[in-house]
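Work Package 3 (structural annotation) set out to generate three-dimensional models for the target panel prioritized at the project kickoff. During this period the team completed the workflow that converts sequence records into discrete structure tokens, so that structures can be stored uniformly alongside our sequence database. As a representative example, we reproduce one entry of 658 residues exactly as it appears in the project archive.
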Amino acid sequence: MRYYFFLGYLLLSIQGKAAPRPFQRIITSPDGRLSVTVTVTDSTRYAVSYEGRLLVRPSAVAMTLAGGRSLAVGDEVRQSRVRTVRDSIVPEVVTKRRLIRDHFTELTLDFRGNYALLVRVYDDGMAYRFRTSLADSLTILNETARFALVDDPTVYFPAVQKRADADRFHTSFEELYSIKPLSQVHDTTLAFSPVLVAGSGSVPRIVITESDLDDYPGMFLARDGQSLKGVFAPIPLAERMTAGGFPQLIVTRRADFIARTSGKRSFPWRVLVIGTDRTLPETDLIYRLAAPSRVSDVSWVRPGKCTDEWITDINLFNVPFRAGINTATYKYYVDFAKRFGFDRILLDAGWSDYTDLFKINPDLNVPELVAYARSQGVRLSMWTLCSTLDRQLEPALKQFSDWGVDFIMTDFMDRDDQNMVRFYSRVAEACARHKIMIMFHGAYKSAGFERTWPNAITREGVLGSEYNIWSSKPTPEHDLLLPFIRMVAGPMDYEPGLLDNATKEQFRPIAGKVMSQGTRCHQLAMFVVYDSPIPIFSGNPSQAYLEPAFMEFLGSIPAAFDETTVLDAKLGDYLVTARRRGTDWYIGGLTDWTGRPMNLPLTFLGDGTFEATLCTDGPNADRNPVDYQLSTQTVRATDTLGLKLAPGGGFVVRIRRK
């Protein structure tokens, strides 16, 4: 390899082309398994190996600026330095684990021209980013982010489905995963990240994504030969507001550059999360790479369970009032939340005019509802349309704060160009000043945003429960891909808890009487398996009241945990996750359409005896997926629980010390 490296440099010199002095450096992960080779000649490339086996071939990195200059192309390395970090991160808001191990090796290449390339390698992946120290602002024409893969791996690719009324960079970031060899992905197909790459045999999985996305467009991915390459939405020059129920801004004209930004800054990390089926769902690499909190006091950021009425269309029964967007209905939701241990209820679309947050639905007495919710110790949360929230931001947030609203949702961004990325930071900062948490729907993945803005506690960017209203897309197979791909990039708002459950043959998308594919316990297990510090229960409260023991068990599951570990997993097939809150353990398991037995060793428990409460698929769940069993037994760390999961099934076990 060294022969060809210097031969190439010699040929450039013979041909009379100016070339920088060649540079090569290898850095390794703390455990020594992962290595990254960075090479600088006329271009800059990185390659990744795991235990000596090549995972990513030499791949170019560069940034093209206006005026004909390109970073990391034709420039010489002025200085290089390596540092090792053995540290820990204490999260500002504990959601997944109380202490995050932060061990890595970092290579910094200072180039002539006042910029640097930073490369980090962790036990569970690698990342690189540019950092500039230039006096003037930068206009960035494009960025080269290449991932040259080995052989012809299988890729799990959420392809953008182009809208008829917009360009290809408009998407809600909610798609199924196409699973095919890289060579069979059409080169015009555009996918949003994360994308998973699965090689053959024992080769680790690779999830390609980004972190610390700020004042810069998000990264899409497209095939380019045997590589994936980053694609970035150009900056908008003109927009129009759509008509219809949920008006949104559509870009009608874009510039010939992707960003205009400060000359003194760090750019987003390009990240390869590398691991096994067991390690990918529990990683927090994206969080570790993100910028620390910009909110000085986060004591008011409180994870907690929430209800939502939109998916079931408020189709209540056994109530003495006409259900709908009105005061009586939301008081009913407040009573439900108090009865079963939920922290807040969400008033979804319709509580106000979509385009005016001060034009409140005449059937809704908000001051009366606010007073009632406060008397019951339940918080209110409100849905907003993003274009309306942006226009009415400060007065709306003041009104929410006066109402005691501590959590809002904003929806229908459906873009991640630089302008829209700036919207996220602007709104999160404003919400933080008013001590309001926010969830983004119609949103790109969080990319570590929840570390920088802890009040932006969760977000959508996932094909979740709402698709049961109009499609058959949320299958158990889809549910078993999300933790290995989308969830790697941060928390996701799936909105589980549907109580009308069906087999594959029984399922029908019916608005107003929404069912889910798979068993009741499959829905329940999502509250443990999926990362979301404000999990939203999307089931019908009228159904829930008929099964108080089940709902009390669901209500006992915390929204955030002190420790998280994956006990067993297979991509797309099954997943078992254990989480600890205080001294209590919650173990959740999911399976695809294949029913399977599972043995659950309890070796993670300490000494003593414990009470285990199990919610498992019932004996008839393969025919009637609403069937479940609640049982209690005494267990010890030496015990193994034998469980049987129905097709599309799941389980939750709660373990408390006696």
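The first strand starts at residue 23 and ends at 28.
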